[in-house]
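$ fold --in a.seq
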Amino acid sequence: MSFDNKSSNRLATSNSGVLGWHAAAWQSIVGEKSRWPHAVLLKGERGIGKLAFAQELAKGLLCERSETLKSCGDCTGCNLIAAALHPDFRDVVPAAASPEIDEIALDRARDKAKKPSALILIEQIRELTDYVNIRSQRDVGKVIALYPAESLNVNAANALLKMLEEPPPRTYFLLITHGAQKLLPTLLSRCRQIALPAPDRQQALGWLAAHGIRQPELSLAQAGGAPLQAAGFDGDYWVQRASLLAHLTAPRFDPLATAEALRRHEMVCTVDWLQKWVFDLIFLKVVGKIRYYPDCGEVLSKLVNGLDSREMIRFSKELSDQREVAGHSLNAQLFTEQLMLSYSHLLRSGRYG
């Protein structure tokens, strides 16, 4: 999802619309266009369709015919959005999250010998100043989408706060977040908050099946019940997952060999897989159920009986800490080795290893 002229293709060319499990939330607001607040925070779990909801909001706010938030789909404004050319459409995302922005960011990164930022930086907020203060070109309004909002660094968040204090008329900010608890209280106070629910299991499975997703039940389990995240798992994802599981389920775990096999994998994905693996171990030990790895039930059941609960919780907390820095680590090999050595320590806390 993107809102500027060059990078709006992902949002503007999507025809997903509001997803079925968000229909009630949409109906509750669709008639509020004339009194729509200048800042809205869409919050909910990752991968449940918040961007699709934001897309429909943006279309409705910039539609030149409709008096509600349901866009007509046929006016000049709607056609410009569909063509990813609307001049009053803008987004703010971390450089590392946008393929289009990455081309510029990567050039800068090579000069500075560092990766594109996974955070929204103050420079990106400052770049909005002129855009916010000039008149909209279509004379309908302007929409700025910012996501994920929790990726704002402190300086960027404070700069955004100043912008939200007295925005020009018909300037609308749409903030999308997976982690509202990470946002500044003052930022939350300036936004109308709309909580979007996750679908129930049958809704999610039906949506995945309708979109031709193979192994919908396993995909949904791996995504923790988030259907759009499940739909995004490509062939490389499953190959890399299988590579990790081959080591995790081996009769004898070799941390260094595992780290070597995973060194070209995305570190964030590796941490995510391990977090889910350890969650299933804890969940299985406490309540006798498996959430993320239903295809590994036999191995998990054998492992969990020999593991110390306190060590599992300790390692789970360590993984949470490592996830915060996984996108910033400069040495993937050392990072992955440390994770695997910690997991090996967990196994040795019981009767495995």
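$ fold --in b.seq
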Amino acid sequence: MTTSEDAYRVLVLDDDPDIAEYTRTVLERRGGCQVLSLNDPRLAVAALEDFQPDVVVTDIEMPGMSGLEVLALMREAQPGLPVIVMTAHVSIDYAVRALRSQADEFLTKPISHPELISIVRRLASQWRSRREADLELDRAAEVQRGLLPRQLVALDGYQLDGDCTPARAVGGDFFDWYPVSDGAAFTVADVMGKGIGAAIIAATVRSVLRSGAGGPDLGQVMSVADSSLEPDLERAGAFVTLFHARLNAALGEVRYVDAGHGLSLVVRAAGGTKRLATTSFPLGSGFGGGWREHILTLLPGDTLVSVSDGVLDLFDGTLASLDEVERIARSASSARDIVDALLERASHGAPDDVTVVVLRRDL
């Protein structure tokens, strides 16, 4: 049985009180809808906020404001809300005008009860599904924002900076950093998936990695993370690529593990660049084991840059794009300048999430 809370909400606009009342009666008694009927179209936009309809049914010819004018205002106030336009006129001109105004359906009077009810239910169901999906994305975006570090790690003699720009409301990328006893740890990761599920997995990855902050070997940390995440990743059909590192600030030593990521490079102040190619599988790939810790030394002026694969799409989409990242790193005066240069390119339209973390040792 449909409750008043579950019933589709329909806003009916018609300057003819008899037609408006007739439409309301049909939709309420035969369609099980909750209906608000208005004879003055100028009240329609305010009703969107107060009544929160799932569908709007409007006449096309009304004094003071036409149905097409109402439709334009509704599209501005609440994009995507389904609108059904009704008219007694059947000319091609009216139909074209309605469709160009982005009406979802164009119906000519008299309208059969079953047809109207069927269309209202279909459009209302689609609208609610879209809204639920949007709410899920909003929740996922909130989770993702909560994963990002809230402040920089203060490191004498080093600059550590980064940022993340999702291509959609929420993406699968995240980065993290936090102080450890001898310096700092930092991560760039990409969960293969979107929505709340990917955001929850990302939160779990972050938590597991942080819990292993005091571990002596990063390879072992990866093994623990893979074991902890395996059930969730298997259910979601997802996997995680990541670059995770720890800096010993006094020695300039960076210990790191790369799990299927392969998008980090060291730009040497003295010349030359080394890409830190991956030697291990992603977490959740089903090929567990083999996460080996590597060590490199940052000399004064050297820069370590780790990016997500969305950065490649800012250029030609191949690994050759890392040459452009190197060029930006060499010309930048600070770690933040490198991050800003890449995010500026992303601001012009990035097809995928863009995440960047930069560690530079001061001269």
